[in-house]
Design a protein that fits this description.
Blueprint lengths: L16 H10 L3 H7 L14 H10 L4 E5 L11 E6 L2 E10 L2 E4 L14 E3 L5 E8 L2
Helix pairs in contact: 1-2, 1-3
C-alpha cells in the first residue's frame, strides 16, 4: 500500500495473524496496533478477526481499503492482505503481499516453541478467498 521495505512480523497471539499482516502493510509494529486499538487485545488470543475488522483499522490509520473476492485473475499488489483458508489452515490465515513474495507471520505453523516465526514465502499456503486492497 505504501512504498516501504516490508519486514516480517510474527503474530503474538494464536489468532493474531490479521494484526501482524496490517503491521507489515503499514510499516508499524504489532505492539503499536495493540496499544492504539485496545479492542484488539480482546480478539487476538482466541477469537480472531474478519476482513471488516482489518478494514476498520486501515481506515483509522488513514488508508482507504476495500475487500474483494480473490479470483484467478486477481493480481496482488504490495501491501495487500490476503485471507487464505484450506485443510492445513481450517480457521484461515492472513498474509501480506510484499516485494519478496508473501509475508507469513507464522511461517513455522503449527510450532509455537521456542517461538512463532515470521518470514516470506513464494506462494500462498492455501486458497486465497479475500483480498484487502487499497481503494483505487
Amino acid at each position: 500500500m505504501q512504498n516501504i521495505d516490508y519486514k516480517p512480523i510474527p503474530q503474538q497471539a494464536m489468532m493474531g495473524c490479521g494484526i501482524a499482516a496490517i503491521a507489515c502493510s503499514l510499516g508499524c509494529s504489532y505492539k503499536y496496533l495493540i496499544n492504539k486499538y485496545k479492542w484488539i487485545a480482546n480478539r487476538h488470543d482466541l477469537i480472531g478477526f474478519d476482513c471488516n475488522h482489518l478494514v476498520k483499522i486501515f481506515n483509522n490509520e488513514g488508508v482507504n481499503t476495500v475487500i474483494k473476492k480473490v479470483t484467478t485473475n486477481t493480481k496482488f499488489e504490495n501491501g495487500d492482505i490476503i485471507f487464505v483458508k484450506g485443510d492445513k489452515l481450517p480457521y484461515g490465515h492472513y498474509l501480506t503481499k510484499a516485494n519478496k513474495g508473501f509475508m507469513d507471520c507464522w511461517i513455522n505453523y503449527p510450532k509455537i516453541y521456542p517461538r512463532i516465526q515470521a518470514g516470506f514465502v513464494d506462494k500462498l499456503p492455501a486458497k486465497g478467498l479475500w483480498v484487502i486492497t487499497k481503494k483505487r
